Amino acid sequence: MGISSRLGALALSGAASSLALIIATVAPPSVVFAAEAAARPSTDPSLLSEVVVTAQKREENLQKVPLAITAYTAQLRDKTGLVSAQDQLNFTPGVTFQPPSSSDPDRITIRGIGRVTNQIGTDGGVAVYQDGFYVGSSTGLGGSTLGVDRIEVLRGPQGTLYGRNSIGGAVNVISRKPDSKFTADVRVTGNDYGGETVEGRISGPITDHIRASAWVSQNDQSRGYYHDVLPHTAPGAVPGQPLNLAGSVVNESLVSHQPQEGGTGHGWSSEFQLAFDAGSSFDGGIRFVALDQYSYPRDSTGVNGWGSNVALIVPNVFTGFAPQQNPGIYDHRAFYTNTPTKDHMSNDYQVIGHLNWHLSGIDVKYTGGYWQYTNHLDEDGDSTANIQFQTPVLFDPTGFFTQTSQNLIHYVFNDTQKSWSHEVTFASTGNGPLQWIGGVYYYNEAHEQTFAVPEVGEPHYDQLTDYLFTLNPAVAGLYASIEPNFYGLGPSGPINNPKELLYSYDARLKTQSEALFAQVDWRPTDHWHISLGARYSWDQKAGFERQFSITQIPLVNQDLAAILDAGLQATPLNQRIPGFQYFWPKYPGTNKYVEDFVFEGCQNPGSDGVVSDNPAVGPCPAHRNMKNNWSAPTGTFAVEWSPNRDTNVYGRYSRGYKSGGYNLGTLAPGAIVNEETIDAFEGGWKQNFGPTFQVNAAAFYYLYHGIQALNLTVVQDSPPIGVNELVNVPESRAFGVELETKWAPIDNLLLMFNYSYLDTQILKGAGYVDSSDPAGLQPGAKPFGPGLVDPVTNAVTQRQTLVGNQLPESPNHKISVNASYTWKFAPGDLTFSVTEDWHSSFYYTLFDNPNWRVPGGQETSLRLGWAAKDRRYEVIAQVSNLFNAEVPVSVNTLPPNQAYYHILGLEPPRVVTLELRAHF
Asked: Any idea of the CA torsion for 20, 25, 28, 33, to the nearest 10 degrees?
């Protein structure tokens, strides 16, 4: 038995013990004994009542759909405490969720299929829909039950009725519709991190045919889940002591102590809905959402030293940083920066409309929407609060080998998107054995991202030149002998750089998707159901990218040079300090020694469609346009057997597809990637054992073709040069089993137990380089062919095979348990709920390398709620992550030129929440 199997067995055993303990805890002894008696119908209709879903674009009983679905109704979320997106997706079998962060978009992975890249030109593998409108992100999953009625998680490719980017599955968020009677709700929530949320909703009829609702929420949080501290100077040192390390200068007044991370910030959200009808033949509705949110996220932190091996030729933002000054080494929720991360989501508007015509034997439905937003992110680019640092100086004849440089580097990221879609469906409404649905779909998106790395406070970056190479052939030759292929195409002229940028890119994407789809459902008898569906999708993407990049090379200690050169301003240039050059006369840097130079930072200029903005000056800045299209047939075939009303046994085959895409922003060679496809086989069993016990089980096998991923590809053997390219990994497979159970052994007690086993493996794929382990030395490395040796530095670059590696974000085991019990008293009801989640470890990338291993985690949460008899008032207390466990969600290891810096993302720590509700 393997280690993961033993862990799974131990977890199952522990979960069974925990379940018994939970029952004994929440129920009196008489209740425990009563559980052994014959099952009785529950008096609480929210326990095992029928759940209606629209997974197949019809209202159906969840138990009757031949598909693995997990649904979270508003009643279930309130009762169990599964209120956030993280809670719900943690509890769902086979699903892994990474919430959005300052550096990564959100990632939902279902059965090993999700998203490996962050590129603007690629898409996620799990489709997210808001009221039938594609949004592609987890927005709205954790919405309050005031505004969200139901969340459906569809596991497996949905290549017929959904299609777009649903190769791994789909998540439907269904909003709460306007009520037919007047209602009003007010909720106030606070937590022990200074968080406050106030929300209200009013709903009701305006006329006999028009209903409306309005919802508004305002939030504020003054403390974060991470803390900004002064660094440790040595093991055991106390945070907050003055830093006294060579090469580091700290000004405490510039150190940020502003709130950071995890919902910290302030903002507002609002929603307005209008529902209308014109008798029984026509109805519809419109939903408008607007929000504005400021946050200060710091959701990941470095957990190792920055290192002392400084690159001689190309100093980077980590240059000169002394070891052990990183507080994250000792406290994974500590960081150290002089620039607070600021994230502002603005101009966020969403409009979704529905129109329904009910004709004789057929329904015609239109669903359309528009969504736009602007997101601005500004964060510290060097991960320290050092405002200055010392860097090595090349060719300094005086023996002074350091140069003082400013260290106020920012990462500035802007993201703007506008998208709209239209869908028209035609569905049969008769009672015969043959039913059908078909339709057309159109989607259009305009998306732009800009990223910049300014070095604030270094005015010499305003004008940059490689003047040294132009006027001093001897020094240029020395550079060339050290790294003969490092500088690419040679010298360029001066470049205007008023924004003091070290690097920037502009990436723009226009996407257009169209599809035709149809599905036929035939029930030849009461016990058999056959489904056949097909879809054809066309996707076209047009991309544009522009890049600007420089590398700082301190050539001389300016202060020392000024002293040595004092009084010699009239001395001819060739009699000054040997080996160094001044900027030319009339240049803005006149009488300054050359300190920096700009070389071609653009990948592959002059080929792969890359065009220099100004060839007379140099190859960078440069830009490129790309345009491509993809298409594919997808579909499904399912057979369902229902021997009685409580049993559903099914088998299905599904074909999934995700369009190709681009690696936009870096001007990398080979920037276009092909589509992904999947062949999925699934068998399932849904069973109700009377009204008190429900079991849903599924087993599946996937063949996954062309997973889109970034790879550090070697483009030159001698010396080795690698660039990040977007590639397709040829073939992978995944199989597993999933179990969901609900049991109401007695009145008012609900027990839920979910388990999933997932085994993934890459079957084909060789010649890949691990950016965190380019030499292939880490445990788990699988060398492929001979290593490439740099003749100058002797550095080894080792290609690897991926065969046998796991798919990213795919833990072998997941276990979730929830128990809730309601005590009924004359004044009202008291409900207690406890949730336990556990998952085994997984890898964050395609490499089974300890640098990418995300440890397993376990989390316990409690919820206690009191509701008045008439439900007009409620008080709810909740403790999330009761034992303050450190539960990682991501691990990222930076490449060698950034000292293999290890970044860890964590779920929130223990948070205590109190909520007051009033309903009128």
From this structure: 0
Gap between the Cα atoms of 354 and 369, Å rounded: 9
The answer to whether the CB of 419 falls within 8 A of the CB of 492 is: no
Quick one: how far is CA 375 from the chain centroid?
Answer: 15
| Separation of alpha carbons 708 and 68, rounded Å | 25
Name residues whose C-beta falls within 8 Å of residue 283's C-beta, 6 or more positions apart in sequence.
275, 276, 277, 356, 358
Strand ranges in 788-871 using DSSP code E only, listed in sequence order: 788-789, 796-797, 800-801, 813-824, 828-839, 842-843, 853-854, 857-868
Closest CA to 278 of 178, 367, 179, 209: 209
DSSP string, 702-757: EEEEEEEEEEEEEEETTTTEEEEEEEEEEEEEEEEEEEEEEE--STTEEEEEEEEE
What does the DSSP 8-state code read for residue 493?
Answer: -
How far CA 236 is from CA of 325, 328, 903, in Å, comes to 12, 13, 22
| DSSP, res 601 | -
DSSP-derived pairing of the beta strands 888-893 and 873-880: unpaired
Strand partners, 653: 637, 681
How far apart (Å, rounded) are the C-alpha atoms in residues 667 and 656? 30
- Encode pLDDT of 816-827 as tens digits: 999 999 999 999
* Distance between CA atoms of residues 710 and 724, nearest Å: 6
pLDDT per residue over 182-227, tens digit each? Answer: 999 999 999 998 889 999 999 999 999 999 999 999 999 888 888 7
Tell me which residue of 760, 839, 846, 844 sits closest to 809, measured CA to CA.
844
| pLDDT tens column, 499-557 | 667 778 899 999 999 999 999 999 999 999 999 999 999 999 999 998 876 654 444 44
Determine the distance from the C-alpha atom of residue 158 to the mean position of all C-alpha atoms in its chain, rounded to a whole number: 21
The pair phi, psi for residue 318, each rounded to 5°, is -95, 0
| pTM, two decimal places | 0.84
What are 107's strand-pairing partners?
Answer: 98
DSSP-H helix ranges across 219-282: none
DSSP conformational letter for 564: H
CA distances to 256, 736, 796, 832 from 741, in Å: 48, 17, 52, 19
